[in-house]
């Protein structure tokens, strides 16, 4: 409904002079569409042309609204994919962030509503009395009467946003909602990353358990062979003791893996919104594959890291709040229109003689507040400087994290080559040593030492694989979720 139609409904008896006054006020308000305070400009940050740990990487433009896709599918594990889907729908930390985002969206709708007129309708009955009295020296007399008043009234008021206070407020609320949306994406990515890391570590523990089980079986055979040789008088009692010590130590290591696995399993249960008692993961014979990190592709750090997007949008909100604070120096113009009916009886209340109306603009301005407005402007500017510094630090931290994980993955890859060579040598040494022991050429202590070295190399390789898997997840998270350049615009971006 337009202001003119509201005017006609509420005050049908407005004179031509009053109508011209209202129209003039509206024109003044519309033509004075300025907004005080600074317009937003993105703060300058130190952005390298490329990552020093990965030649060919370069900085791209921020586009955090791009969909990141199912980056966890890089690990080729169906059960992991199912767990992530449960996390996306049932994780309570993500649910909290989603509720905060809906609150921010509601504030944006509320700020938009401030641009429209407010229409009120009231109806009521009042009983009142008014006394008249006279006095002469110490003597006085009074009388009073009681009357009923019935009213029905409609009113329209509208604040003209001459100085842009409402526009700056909407700008701030919109930026805060966008920051909340980015916070939601950051929290979801963080929870997904945590689940993937827990799952990968659990599967590596399954691999370690299989290794120890195979080792225990091998040690049991060695113990049996040593006991047979002892009974035959070929080996001494010390060889049997050494074989038993080696076997029991390995069994203890295998038992120790039980509580470690339970911790990761319980963590996964909580991440998907289940109590640990209601969740379990069966052991698997496969460890998820290690994704290959591209050697060269555009850096998408600022494009896809939601924490950086959130930090920048907080800067936008803080910048707009400066305008809101400065607008307090200027007068507020409110246009109001009221009309209705008033009568001492309910009968014929809505009749022509009982009608009344009023219309007119109102200017309100604070002349002295003891420096409160000035202090609020100073506070808003300081808050802006704080958010700028936080944004710049978030960018720097993002580059640092990516550089660290790139270096870590490169070093671990080189280390994996050397460790595999060491493992191959240890396996060959164990084979030769066992053959020499069976032939009676060496003592059993030599076999124990060689077996321990081979087992240590096997476990070191598994630990190294775990480190590489975890570093790959951390790199993906540091890049905002994967490195696939074929992205699509997300439909979940806010207003």
UniProtKB/TrEMBL annotation:
UniProt subcellular location: Cell outer membrane
Residues annotated as signal peptide: 1-35
Recorded topology in the membrane: Lipid-anchor
Keywords, alphabetical: Cell outer membrane, Coiled coil, Lipoprotein, Membrane, Palmitate, Signal, Transmembrane, Transmembrane beta strand
Listed name of the protein: RND transporter
Feature: compositional bias, Low complexity: 128-145
GO molecular function term, any single one: efflux transmembrane transporter activity
Coiled coil region boundaries: 80-107
Region Disordered, annotated ranges: 124-145
Pfam families: OEP (PF02321)
Transmembrane segments: none
Family membership noted in the UniProt record: Belongs to the outer membrane factor (OMF) (TC 1.B.17) family.
Record PANTHER family: BLR4455 PROTEIN, OUTER MEMBRANE CATION EFFLUX PROTEIN
GO annotations of cellular component type: cell outer membrane
